[in-house]
Amino acid sequence: MRDRQPTGRVLAVLAATASLAVMAGAGSSAHADTGSPDRAQAVRVNAAEIPCAKYLQKKHTYRTNPAGPSWQTHKTDKLGRPANAEIRIGAVDRDPRLGLCEAVVGEWGGPGHVGARMIPAGVKGAGHRANVVPVAKSADRILKAVERKTLRCNAGYKIVTLGVTAHYKKNDNGVVPSRFSVYLEVKNRAIEFGANSFLAFDNKEYTNAGEHRLLDSLADQVEAMRC
């Protein structure tokens, strides 16, 4: 996929993002732990300092709020693209849905794409680049349905783990995932349900019938988990 040149609006947003990162470096309590295989200890940095760049550090792990009621882990692939995001949800606290990075990332996908969080904002999915990818509008609606179902499960079970993996086509260096797979685990004191591949779908525009089939499959999965 050929890289699109950034528009003036995108350049302005990138500048604003960089400015926010500098300002957030002092006095903010929101942090991420970044672990690297060639360092003995994770480096603790402000979450806003994760750049809104097409490629992040290669094969890197970002850990957000490991000591809080919820934690998030974000991993990149060998090219530095977001590859996997996972959150353990305790107390749900909505993160702002629209962010500067989402606008930038949406531009990278071209017409018909938006910048979307793999772990959605409604379950406190972070708005930084390690969690934000270009998503077709149909696929974005499916991710939003996953968000609603996750909130429903969390209301009944209190402990929920949600993970989303972004898959890229082989030999494609672009930043638009070709496919997503979602897994969800819910439990309380007596019951535990889990699934390694809860739902898988392509990052594309679906027909109404195709989109409804996926949403029905998602509803059936959640019902089987009794939440």
Describe what this molecule looks like in 3D.
By secondary structure, this protein is an alpha+beta fold. Helices cover 29% and strands 27% of the residues. The protein has four helices and eleven strands, in the order H-E-E-E-E-E-H-E-E-H-E-E-E-E-H. The strands form two sheets. Strands 1, 2, 3, 4, 5, 8, 9, 10 and 11 form a nine-stranded antiparallel beta sheet that branches. Helix 1 (8-24) packs antiparallel against helix 2 and helix 3 runs parallel beside helix 4 (208-224). The radius of gyration is 17 Å and the shape is globular.
Task: Supply the key terms.
globular, 29% helix, single chain, 227 residues, 4 helices, nine-stranded antiparallel sheet, disordered N terminus, two-stranded antiparallel sheet, alpha+beta
Short description:
The protein has helices at 8-24, 100-109, 137-157, 208-224; strands at 31-35, 43-46, 61-64, 71-76, 82-89, 113-117, 132-136, 159-167, 179-187, 192-193, 199-202.
Helix content: 25-40%
Low-pLDDT residue spans: 1-46
Number of strands: 11
Q: How would a crystallographer describe the biggest sheet?
A: 9 strands, antiparallel
What is the residue-averaged pLDDT? 77
Using only C-alpha atoms, the radius of gyration works out to 17 Å
- Principal-axes geometry comes out as globular
